[in-house]
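So, can you check this record?

>
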Amino acid sequence: MKTFKICLLGLFLIAGSLSAQNVNIVKRYKVNGNEVKGTCPVLSPAGDKLLFTSENQKGLWLYDLNTKELITICESEGAGYAPIFNADGTKIFYRKTIYQNRRKLDAIESFDLVKKQKIEMISPQRNLAHLQNYQNGFLVSTDRKLLKATFGKTKNNVPPYVCTEDLKLVVYANGKRTELNPTGENNARYIWVSLSPDNKKILFTVAGKGTYVSDLEGKITASLGYLNAPVWYNNDYVIGMQDKDDGHFITASKVLLVSLNGKIKMPLSLENEIAMYPSASSKGNKVAYNQLQGDIIIVELDVKP
């Protein structure tokens, strides 16, 4: 394992003027290193660590915002596709993609940041959906079955699990699998599905239509408009990107904070940058995103109730 020292280039922007009612940008800075470029950042729950990957999602690296160290987690294919932290930020769960007889298979591995130890949690198989945090482990669906993988016994009830399967919106709850179609449109394609922190709402995007929030029964409670790669900031706010392309390349993209009540739609990125693939930590009051050229930006927020 290689450990690199990198520095934070403080582009501190005290932005009292950049506010929207009860939301303020406190400062913005770039994670800077001569050989460090990345995409698809993922903040830890506390906002003190940052995962990122390469452009083709091969390999996974962790940057510690406190110690300013960069650690190579792995160099596996697929590792950068939606990795997650456990609840206390001491473990990482990620994919390892392999090919057997021209068939793509995904395994799920864990990396213990304290012990510096890797463990295979789920053996290679097809049709693994995205990982959802659950106590000291995760939930994931495969072939219309819900799997639970944890370290040690768990006492809490299994929360609802939401995902997209064959571009359909699926909820696993109380031992049942249910397909939802909140928009009611035939052939609606559901992507970027996630469960709210309070386990009561579903965030999702309908390809070509927009991003929405619904309850667990599929009743739409908020329409957020054009907002790609959306993630929850907390139960009341969502972070996403508005990107444009010419059919081949991304030509513009900005990261926004949007309130579910429709009162706030606030740019978090600068006008002169192409900002993509945000991640959020409400506990750490941070949002991370990558620029088109691979720089990773951290925005610290002051969000009042």
